[in-house]
Structure prediction request, 87 residues.
Amino acid sequence: VILLFALASGIKSQSILKLAGVVSYASFFFYLLHRPLWSWLAGIFSVETSRYLPFFKMIPASIVVFILSYYLQFGYDRLLAVFRQSK
Prediction:
């Protein structure tokens, strides 16, 4: 993530800046939930723990957890907006 922000600030590319924004937006829920979600996904797909689990966590599981984290953050923001409007 730090490399992504360094690229975004140095290159000034709009696509990299958007990607950096998406990553930072989802990062809190990713940090909170990545381990339980990795375990849950490894159980669903019955990945062998000794051999393939590190590769499973790096690519497909991290992508799924990232997408879930983004939508969880979005839902959390919407929920807060509803509570703010109801006051």
User: Anything to note?
Assistant: The chain is about 85% helix and 0% strand.
